[in-house]
Design a protein that fits this description.
The mean pLDDT is 97. This protein is 46% helix and 12% strand. Helix 4 (105-112) packs across helix 6, helix 10 (279-302) packs across helix 13 and helix 10 packs across helix 16. It is built from 21 helices and 12 strands. It folds into 2 domains: 8-277, NAD(P)-binding Rossmann-like Domain (Rossmann fold, 3-Layer(aba) Sandwich), CATH 3.40.50.720; 280-481, N-(1-d-carboxylethyl)-l-norvaline Dehydrogenase, domain 2 (Orthogonal Bundle), CATH 1.10.1040.10. 50% of the residues are buried. The strands form 3 sheets. The chain has a 6-stranded parallel sheet, with helices on both faces. The chain has a 3-stranded mixed sheet with strand order 4-3-10, sandwiched between helices. The protein has 482 residues and is α/β, with parallel strands linked by helices. It has helices at 33-37, 39-50, 65-72, 105-112, 142-149, 157-171, 187-200, 205-211, 228-238, 279-302, 308-312, 317-329, 341-352, 361-365, 368-385, 391-403, 421-429, 435-443, 451-454, 457-473, 475-480; strands spanning 24-29, 55-60, 77-83, 86-92, 95-100, 119-122, 176-180, 212-213, 217-220, 246-248, 253-257, 273-275. Bound molecules: D-mannonic acid. The site of D-mannonic acid has 9 residues, from helix 10 and helix 14.
């Protein structure tokens, strides 16, 4: 039997949704596993505790698989929390509809112009915003240009939002908040820059300024891609099959800038922190959790480790990460009041060691060009401005440079899943295959490396030194030797 509303009486009572089917109030773009295990859960708990019509209409920008699965299940799906000593599963009931942007673009636009919708949230990954990762400036590619300049149904996320906001203004449907829940630096600020830049030359510019807010947010929960095992665990717990099941770690956090002109769910009753300024939380999380995550992913994948937990157990890696946190990251930022970066880092390392997660190194390694700036390069920039050479951060960049060459230490292939994969391959092919040549080739990716970094001789020397070690001795021996 499948998970549907009519199957719920057969599901153990403790696993059933905590609310009756809600009326829609939020549109969410990007229905991946992370959204289902994070915002969908917080929002259900907020409605259970504080009421309100904040059902989430999920919009899948690209793949329709999840839309089909959820439609067949009346919008229901389960989240299994994987602790080191056991798991628990709950069915989440905050969904209020599913749309496939490519198939139903006009329905999505009409929804954005519906006064019932007062918040749009997004998890479309870093590359979905069409912003230069190094500077945050708009990268107007052909797809987005066509969305803006022709009457065709929008195919990009920014194109869809601009069309929807135009329709909302015409419908006089009232103010709205657009909240990026992706791991971008100062995501509220970047979202505002994106929309106001696109709106600047149009008739909606003034309306946007007066009616649209862009709350910044820090989102945090480790949610690996679902596997056959994820579905099997959910089916065992529920007694029915759930094709949209996800699993996640026990930890979950959400810090939200409280700037919602048409109201919001009582997320604070679900454990979220509502604040005037989430940016200290964002930098702490991006540089520490995500920076260390990427480090483990690149070094681990090159050394042949399948999962983050297995990679972290490599001799020397945990020690190197502690020094990365204490010597490079901590002095690069001002943490939120009362938080100590090193102590936060210890918590993060313990979360990564959770063996139940099965989080694959190559999943975290993907899209490196979109992730490195906010995760590692901002730390480096900050330390270089203070006159220091951030040795451990340089190791992470060198590990990425080793990874993108596509071959692990044991000779097996490594996937290069990155929007700049072609540029990376072309630059590598045109340079000598020496550490100097590779560093030179990759520092030339100007949408990733700010000129101040690309032209920094001391940083370059540190990168060449690490890359030489990684190529000569392999990742495992390099780490064992530090
Ligand atoms: C990870 C993140 O895949 C990745 O790049 O670093 O998805 C990470 O698991 C989350 O940001 C945790 O909150």
């Amino acid at each position: 039997m499948e998970l549907t509303r009519s199957a719920l009486p057969g599901v153990p009572a403790g696993c059933r949704p905590r609310i009756a089917p809600p009326a829609p109030g939020i549109v969410h773009l990007g229905m991946g596993a992370f959204h289902r295990a994070h915002q969908a859960v917080f929002t259900e708990d907020a409605m259970a505790a504080g009421g309100g019509d904040w059902g989430i209409v999920g919009v899948a920008p690209r793949s329709r698989e999840v839309v089909d699965a959820l439609r067949a299940q009346d919008g229901l799906f389960s989240v299994t929390t994987l602790g080191p000593d056991g798991s628990s599963t709950r069915v989440v009931g905050s969904s209020a509809g599913q749309l496939h942007a490519a198939a139903d673009p006009d329905v999505v636009v009409a929804l954005l112009a519906d006064p019932a919708i007062r918040i749009v949230t997004l998890t479309v990954t870093e590359k979905g915003y069409k912003l230069d990762p190094a500077t945050g400036r708009l990268l107007l590619d052909d797809e987005l240009r066509a969305d803006l300049e022709t009457g065709r149904s929008p195919r990009t996320v920014p194109g869809l939002l601009i069309r929807g906001l135009g329709a909302r203004r015409r419908a006089d449907a009232g103010p709205i908040a657009l909240m990026s829940c992706d791991n971008l630096p100062a995501n509220g600020h970047r979202m505002r820059g994106l929309i106001t830049t696109l709106a600047a030359a149009t008739a909606i510019s003034d309306w946007v300024r007066e009616n649209v807010t862009f709350p910044g947010t820090m989102v945090d929960r480790i949610v690996p891609a679902s596997t056959a095992e994820t579905l099997a665990v959910a089916a065992r717990a529920l007694g029915v099959r759930d094709r949209a099941a996800v699993s996640a770690e026990p930890y979950s956090a959400w810090v939200i800038e409280d700037d919602f002109p048409a109201g919001r769910p009582t997320w604070e009753l679900a454990g979220a922190v509502l604040t005037g300024d989430p940016r200290p939380w964002e930098s702490l999380k991006l540089r520490t959790l995500n920076g260390v995550h990427s480090a483990i992913a690149y070094l681990g994948a090159v050394a042949g480790h399948e999962t983050i937990a297995a990679a972290l157990a490599m001799p020397g890696l945990e020690g190197a990460m502690r020094r990365f946190i204490a010597e490079d990251i901590a002095p690069s930022l001002v943490p939120p009041p009362g938080v100590d970066t090193v102590a936060y880092g210890e918590e993060v390392l313990a979360r990564f060691a959770n063996p139940a997660m099965g989080h694959r190194t190559v999943q975290v390694a993907m899209d490196g060009t979109q992730k490195l700036p906010q995760r590692v390069l901002h730390t480096i920039q900050n330390r270089r401005e203070a006159g220091a050479v951030p040795r451990w951060a340089a190791l992470v960049v060198a590990a990425w440079m080793r990874f993108v060459q596509g071959v692990a230490d044991d000779g097996s292939p490594l996937p290069l899943d990155d929007p700049l994969a072609d540029r990376i391959r072309a630059r590598l092919a045109a340079s000598p295959a020496t550490p100097d040549g590779v560093v030179e080739a990759l520092l030339g990716l100007d949408t990733v490396f700010h000129p101040a970094l690309a032209e920094d001789a001391e940083l370059r020397a540190a990168l060449v030194e690490w890359l030489t070690a990684l190529e000569k001795h392999g990742a495992a021996a390099t780490l064992a030797g530090v």
